[in-house]
Amino acid sequence: MNGIYGTETITLPVGLLTALATSDLRMAVYGLRALYGVVRFLHLIGMAGFIGMVVILDLRGLGLFPAASLDPIRARLALVLRAAFWLTIATGIALFLYDPLGIGLHSMFLPKLLLVVLGYLHARVVQRHPAIRAVAARRRAAAFASLAVWLLVVGASTWNHVERPVKITAALRASTVGKE
């Protein structure tokens, strides 16, 4: 079933995706179709808030505007950033459980997950090591890396959203798992 999108990229294991797709939890989530739109909307709001905060903070880290200009609202920005990140993660999990095969077989889904983990770990390292932020060149490099990773996450998400199956029979088989 790998490669239904015309690429032979590494995806999450089909056996795992099939087990999730046929699980009682997935069937319960799939039965909540009325909430799907709300969850998707919240996911997009979370992503927009998170990426917006990342861009603001990373542009400051790159030196595009003075660090002191954000001082009065820095704590609030960090709160919005964390809330938006965890909203995006929670709703992303819910969307994945709604259609594990449809989402998990996209060619950029696994790379996107790996980039999210990389971005999260990068943020934790930068946060825990003040020496990174203390030197301008290190701070700029960290901000550039952060911006690059999170924009790649958005790119992978976009790719997954517009990607259409080219191997139709494999896609149809994948879409009917658990619906018999």
Automatic annotation (TrEMBL):
<feature type="transmembrane region" description="Helical">
    <location>
        <begin position="103"/>
        <end position="121"/>
    </location>
</feature>
<feature type="transmembrane region" description="Helical">
    <location>
        <begin position="141"/>
        <end position="159"/>
    </location>
</feature>
<feature type="transmembrane region" description="Helical">
    <location>
        <begin position="77"/>
        <end position="97"/>
    </location>
</feature>
<protein>
    <submittedName>
        <fullName>Uncharacterized protein</fullName>
    </submittedName>
</protein>
<keyword id="KW-0812">Transmembrane</keyword>
<keyword id="KW-1133">Transmembrane helix</keyword>
<keyword id="KW-0472">Membrane</keyword>
<feature type="transmembrane region" description="Helical">
    <location>
        <begin position="34"/>
        <end position="57"/>
    </location>
</feature>
